[in-house]
What we know:
Layout: H1 16-26, H2 34-39, H3 66-76, H4 82-93, H5 103-117, H6 121-136, H7 150-155, H8 172-181, H9 197-218, H10 222-238, H11 244-265, H12 282-292, H13 295-306, H14 311-327
Amino acid sequence: MHAAIPPENPGGANHYPMAAEVLHELAPGAPLPGDWFDGVRYYDEPLSRRAPIGVPADALGDIGRHGDWLDHFRGELRAPDWRTVLSRWTPRLAPGLSGATFHGLIRTAHAVRALQRRDTPERRLELAAGLAYWASRFVELPVTATPRSAPDSIRNLAQTEAHALDDEEPGFHQVMDRLLANSLADPVQPAAAAASPHRVLQSLVLATTTALLEMLVQERNRIWLLHNVTGPAAVGLLLPVVDPPTARDLVAYAQQAAIAFHRGYGAPFVPEASVRRRLRPWSELTAIAVERLSVHGLKLFDALRRFSGDARSDRVARSTAEQWLEWV
């Protein structure tokens, strides 16, 4: 699946390798469904090449250089330790983690978790695919000179102005335009990140999950707002393998993107209004998700489970999981 690269036009993200990694995490030994191999063929198109990527990189955000980026990272990942490549590139790519609706970040993060289990040539090629997608879809959201605190920005998620309800969920190429248009409303500078990136990320994912739950109930842009959980949550898979400054930058840029994402696609909501009293256990919810094999649903359930550490987060996460299953 790593060899199936998203076509340059109409674009889109190949979810199957990411979902396969999550399936291995949630249900070790479960076979990959045959129709995934049919679905992945949609993305199996040749990429154009122009010229080798220069150092320093001269082609961040150039979709037409996707093939060049892929060649570049495949070459770099012949190094003995894949972590050195990740350490070199993650700080440079962090400001553009929102590009392509977080999908470069997400694909990279799941490849990293797979490599931590076992280092294989195929998993290195999947990491190269994730990094290439991140680099070629790199979009840096604008920021102002005045940083906002993490808690203030997270609280503002519930107070944002409503965007007009879309008759249909916007297409993949339309998503980033609205994200850019809403990114100045509450920018976050990397320097504003707190000392503990994991703690800040925990709060951010709780905030975006709380928002997603209410947006599922309101039936607002549910697929795209799902990524406002899985995108920031993917940062959590990278924190163990990056240095502290990079960890703080990743969390801060994820927070900035999450605020812009909700401003563009969400609506005002009452936090935790739809949290349920009686909830099924994770084992039952996860079994249903694994049975249904939704590529989006699997990644969402993985993110929700990883960030349901305390009682409050767990109630919000399981309520969101149940609401998702009732919709899909």
